[in-house]
Amino acid sequence: MSLMSTLGRTCALALGLVAAATAGPCDLYGAAGNPCVAAHSTTRALYSAYNGSLYQVRRADGATTNVAPLSTGGVANAATQDSFCAGTTCVISIIYDQSGRGNHLTQAPPGSAGSGPAPGGYDNLASATAAPVYLNGHKAYGVFVAPGTGYRNNAAKGTATGNAAEGLYAVLDGTHYNGGCCFDYGNAETNSADTGAGHMEAIYFGNCNVWGTGQGSGPWIMGDLENGLFSGQNAKYNGGDPAIKYRFVTAVVKGDSSNLWAIRGGNAASGSLSTYYSGPRPSGYYPMKKEGAIILGIGGDNSHGAQGTFYEGVMTTGYPSDAVENSVQANVVAAGYAV
Fold first, then answer.
1. Which of 37, 189, 197, 226 has its Cα between 20 and 30 A from that of 182?
2. Where in the chain are disulfide-linked cysteines found (predicted)?
3. 27: alpha, beta or left, given left = phi > 0 and alpha = psi -120 to 50?
């Protein structure tokens, strides 16, 4: 091989690595044929070209402002929030959808599991300052969900319904959890009520052991499929679903239109993803009956006894391959989550 040929191949490889580094999670999913239909983050842009608002904060006096990235495709400009909220309190009032479909998350309404603690039976909004974090040295804020806190969109557009395939990932705080039901992010009922098995497909994180469990005492990444939290096909126990010990967690749940679903996870600050389950759905959960609403921090029926912290997450069309999820994990690691 000639020197020029070697140099050409080296340059091409370098350019490919640069492109992979600059692409956001939703760019990676889109290139693989699984575009994001919802993309939420209070910490950073999830598309390389996104420069819109990430979230809105509301001050105690009722005034609001939006927080955008420091630069296109970059980390949230935390200084905007810090200046606006100085000397008072703020809550996160809207988490904007970066996909362009308008699937924003706002204060969750009452559900069949009960009303929330806020006026009108709504759930509380998260404190805007309770979950500070750093991404490659830049300050940002996560969504700190205390019991009674919840976000929802019951009129989401483009999300999976019925037995359609979808993928979900989220980056979470692996040390903030409890055994309450249910700290979820994903697909749920459009009427805030429990409408039966298979009407949900959401990421769950915590150590609730009423339904399914994994190894040890948790916490675990599981799937909330309604009327049960599942760690695999068995309704109760999957020894392959480990207790999570990471400060930052990447959690993945995905379901195909065939009788196939999977749980994957890993350390959001380093390393790769592992597959904790991949196989048939639990008995009674195929075909699925997904409704397409989006929830964060609560169960599909507005069960709001859980706690956790959310940094970023998406919902896609189709059933993403392990390979594209591995690329997304590399992007998350490169984002440099730290305390």
1. 37
2. 26-36, 85-90, 181-182
3. alpha
Distance CA(137)–CA(339), nearest Å, equals 9
Point out the catalytic residue in the list 226, 291, 312, 325: 226
Q: Which of 224, 291, 301, 325 is catalytic?
A: 301
226 is catalytic: yes
E strands, 81-162, are: 90-95, 106-107, 132-135, 138-141, 143-145, 151-153
Q: Is the dihedral of CA 181, 186, 189, 190 positive or negative?
A: positive
pLDDT digits (tens, 9 = 90+) for 104-151: 999 999 999 999 999 999 999 999 999 999 999 999 999 999 999 999
Identify the three-state secondary structure at position 183. Answer: coil
In angstroms, what CA-CA distances link 52 with 44, 284, 287? 11, 42, 37
pTM score, whole prediction? 0.94
Report the candidate in 307, 334, 335 with the shortest Cα–Cα distance to residue 175. Answer: 307
| pLDDT digits 0-9 by tens, 156-200 | 999 999 999 999 999 999 999 999 999 999 999 999 999 999 999
Q: Tokens 């955008």 appear where? A: 68
Residue 82: active-site member: no
Please state, in angstroms and rounded to a whole number, the distance separating the CA atoms of residues 117 and 250: 30
Instruction: Check whether the bond before 287 is cis (ω within 30° of 0).
Output: yes
Measured between alpha carbons, how far is 128 from 255 in angstroms, rounded to an integer?
Answer: 32
